[in-house]
Structure formats: C-alpha cells, structure tokens
Amino acid sequence: MKKRVSRYMVGSDCPSCHGKRLKKEALSVTFAGLDIAAFSALPMNRLAALLAPIARGEWTDHASSGDEATLTRSARRAATAQRVASGGSAHKASPDVRRTPNLSNEKRAAAERIAADLLERLGTLIDLGLGYLSLDRATPTLSSGELQRLRLATQLASQLFGVVYVLDEPSAGLHHTDNEALFAALKRLKAAGNSLFVIEHDMQTMRRADWLVDVGPAAGEGGGHVLYSGPPKGLAKIEASQTRIHLFAQDSRIAHVPRTPRGWLAIEGITRNNLNWIDAAFPLGCFTAVTGISGSGKSSLVSQALPELVAAHLGRSLDDADDEEQDPLLAKKEAPVGGRIVAGMETVKRLVRVDQKPIGRTPRSNLATYTGLFDHVRKFFADTPAARKRRYSAGRFSFNVAQGRCPTCEGEGFVSVELLFLPSVYSECSTCHGSRYNPQTLEITWHDKNIADVLAMSVDSACEFFADEPIVMRALTVLRDIGLGYLRLGQPATELSGGEAQRIKLATELQRAHRGDTLYILDEPTTGLHPADVDRLMAQLQGLVDAGNTVVVVEHDMRVAAQSDWVIDIGPGAGEDGGTLVVAATPDVAAKHRASRTASYLREAL
C-alpha cells in the first residue's frame, strides 16, 4: 500500500528550515560564519582546514568584538525575564555568554581546545581515506568498506591496549592508495599493544602479516582444513595451498592483447554527486575497467548515470532493489542524472546490471529458486509414478505451498522465539527437523533422493546427481565454473555474502542464451574473492565479450584492469577532489599516466 501511495507523492525540502532540520534560533548561532547545518555539510578535508588555524590560536578578526557583541546589565535582565516568561530557565548558576565579546580570551581558549580535539578525531578519519565524507552523511548511504573504516577510526581514537581486533576483509572495496592508509592504521593499533586477526584476500596484506593461517584446500565441503600456520614465507612449501600459487608467483605478468572496439558508447555532460559535466566513451564489444580511489565518482558514473541513461534510451525503467529496504513514503528521491548519450546506442539492444545487493531478504529465497533450476527439479518429482498416483503437482514440492510444506514451521525449516530486549533465537523445527516438508511429500523420491535431500546438496554434488539432465545442468555448470560449487542448493539468501549474491546473479544471466549486443555493468565483482576465484570470474566475463557483448566493471583489482581492453580512471582524488576523467586508454598507456593515482599499481600488475 505504501508503494502504491508513494507514486502520487513528491518529496521536497522543508520550506521553513530548507532541509537544515533546525529552528531559526538554533541556526542563528554561527562559528566562522557557518551555522551548525552548514558546518556539518562540509567535507572533513575542508573542515580540518577550517579548524587548523583556530586550534593553533591564529584568529582572524572577522567576528564582531567590542560592546556591540555584549549586553548591558539591564538588557541581560530583560532577556532573562523574557526567557523565563516563555517557559525557559533563568540559568542562575552560569553567567550569560553575552557578558563578554565574541572573541574574548576565555571564548578563544574554549574554541581552541574544542578545535584541537575535533582535529585529532578528523585526522584519523582523513588518514583512513574518508576525508571526502561530510559529518551529516547518512550511514545507510555508506558502503560496507566506509563503515568498517569508520569503526576502525573509533577504535584508534579510544587508545585501548591489550585488545584483540578481528577484521573481515578490511581492504574490500579499497583502492591501493587507501590500502596503504589502512595498513598504517593497523600498524598503529598493533604498536599500541593490541592483536589483529584479519581475514583477507589481498596479497600485499598477506605479505606484510607477521603470521599467516591458510585454510582450504578448496571451498565448502572441500575446505575446512588448516593447511598452514606460520610466517608467510613458509607457505611456499605447501603444495596443496591455492594461495601459495598467487602469493609466490614467479612471473605474474599478464599478457593480454586489447580488442579492437566495434564502436563507442559516448555520453557527455554527466552530473551526479561529485561528477561535474564529465564526458566519457565506452568501447563496444570490449571489456572496460573503471578505476580510481574510493569516493572518486566511479560508481556515480558507471552504476548510476550510465545505466539510467541507457535504460531510458531503451525505454525501460531501471529496477532498484534499494526500494525494498526503505520506507517508500520517506525515501528521498535522487535527482535525475544530468547528461545524455550522443553515440553508440544503435548496437546496444539490452542492459544487464549486476550488483551486490541480496538476491532475497528472507530464508525462503535461495540459490535454487533464484536461478530457476528448482522449477525443473520439482517437475521431475511431479513426473514420478508415485507422485502421479497421488496426483501431486509440481507445486506440492514447493516449500511455499501449504499442501507440501511442514505445518509447524510453514516451510521455513526453523522456528524463531522472540525474546524481549534480546535478539530472536532460531531453532531447527522439531517436526520436520529442518527438511521444510511434511512426511507425505518426503515419501516421493527421484533416483532415491527426496526433495529435501536435493536442496541439501552442494552445487558440485548436484552436478554429479543431475549429470543426465541438460536442462538443470545448464545452471549448475555455470555456478560451478564461476566458483560457487560449494554452496548448497537450498542455502538461504540471508546467509550469502554480497560477492556470492553478485556471482549468482551473473550465473543466472550466463545460463541464458547469449544474443550479443548486451551491455553488462558490474560494480566491483571481485570483492571478497580469492585470486583463484577472480581468475574463474574473469574467464566468464571475457567469454561474454567474445560472444559479442560489452562489459563495464568498476574495479580496484589491478589484475582485472590489466586484463581489460580499456581503462577509464576517475579522480584524481575523492569527493570534491575527484569527479573528473583523468585518463581513458588501453592498460599499457594508462599505466604511464603521471596524474593518475592508479597508474603505478597498474604498472606493477602489467
């Protein structure tokens, strides 16, 4: 109902405060000529520059001073009486701040102390590469990498020691420049007497570790064993380790001959977030990597502006999964992207955007249902003699239909117990023991397996079980080839990482018949992937390009950029310092560009 109503509503800034949220009285107080809303809207880099001279005691006499900034005794009494009459406090225990000028010695001392404390906190955030964020930036708009660095900055400021910090892939979504700042912050935590346990796929971070634990050798059922635990150099002797191959690669140079474009998709005048009238051209029939430091404007260009313009040109709306996450009546509408497509759309027939948003928000959504292979599996069970004799249809084998599912857990496989003031407790259903189905449905078997047994299979196991069923193997083969062979068919969507969700979406697309002339847009597809999985993913993406499609990825992995046909680097900095096209060229040319912060790291990969 809210979604339906929201189509007839328009959101706009409040006419009284103009979006600043505060009363006129609160906004009348200024510091350095800024009210608190304008102060909070400044990027942290600019805020630090504003506070630095004040913290040093270097004041400019732009503020009012002298008698005009103070109140006489009679005026103070009248102001206090007026405040008390309107329901306020007389504040008898504290002197009125208007007894002294704005730049009196005591007020300067207070401001210098506060500015110095603020600068110390801001400095940690800026060192971690977050200087482009403003203080009033809403947390739902931050990426997972930005949130993790914010938490890390909080710990750095706490100055604790003797603490064990556990970080799960802190370098995910970070440019190599930001990685250096992150590593410096981790060294500070270690030097303060703390221990750091870091889960990481970044090779440079592994080489810098004091102790390395390698788990494997494969994923899922093929993993779970500690292959090595010791100093990094010792891993070179462990032949079963897949990490060893990439960590100690003798010749890691990438030989890739860039393809010749069969046209160019040109856009111009793009305005969105920090992008200001940017022009860009993407080669058609090629693999393009868009690089740049975190916050430079890559996602604004590739994940927002480009798909919106292409979708509008194709005459279709752009589905956005974010709409499901927030109240449609309160959701702030994005301003339409500025700019236009000037060439190249005559050869683009279809748009596919593959992001890391969840494939479902409830445990009822899983790998089998999302890819569509579960529809075929249910038909196999419905076609068995036992099922036909009982007149069971394919719907009987769905855990979302009342006929076949367990009545106790209603097909969830578990029951939840709501606890007051505590998180809910989930327990396996005592009736079906997690199978999701009632006993009558489980009596039907296909090749000696019931429907619950099939959902419990991993993709690798299912490939052996359904080897003679090409209609199911089409989806299973792609899932296995893209490195998801360890996932269970019935694994709930809520248990999948962003990288796994993105690869499942990509696999769902890859199993369809390739018609060519499709534009694929991916935002950091290698996030959370081991280099071995990156190689598998790249083989699939290069196959899409070979089939006559165009692939554009936002990426920080230089091995991916080195294997691309065209590199577009956005920057040179983040936030206000970014938003411009630094270089657009083949990888070998882009690696020589002096103004690009990506060039030196791309040179290493090449």
Explain this structure.
The chain is of the alpha/beta class and 606 residues long. It folds into four domains: 28-127, no CATH class; 143-247, P-loop containing nucleotide triphosphate hydrolases (Rossmann fold); 264-359 and 517-605, 3-Layer(aba) Sandwich (Rossmann fold); 367-481, ABC transporter ATPase like fold (Up-down Bundle), CATH 1.20.1580.10. Helices cover 35% and strands 14% of the residues. The chain contains 23 helices and 15 strands. The protein has helices spanning 2-6, 24-27, 36-40, 44-55, 73-85, 105-127, 144-158, 176-191, 203-208, 242-247, 298-314, 367-371, 373-382, 385-389, 439-442, 451-455, 459-465, 470-481, 498-510, 531-546, 558-562, 587-590, 599-605; strands at 164-168, 195-199, 212-216, 225-230, 264-272, 275-283, 287-291, 338-343, 350-354, 414-417, 425-428, 518-523, 550-554, 566-571, 580-585. The strands form five sheets. A six-stranded mixed β-sheet has the order 9-12-13-7-14-15, with helices on both faces. It has a three-stranded antiparallel β-sheet with strand order 6-5-8, with helices on one face. Strand 3 (212-216) and strand 4 (225-230) form a beta hairpin. Helix 7 (144-158) runs parallel beside helix 8 and helix 17 (459-465) runs antiparallel to helix 18. It is globular. The two termini are 54 Å apart.
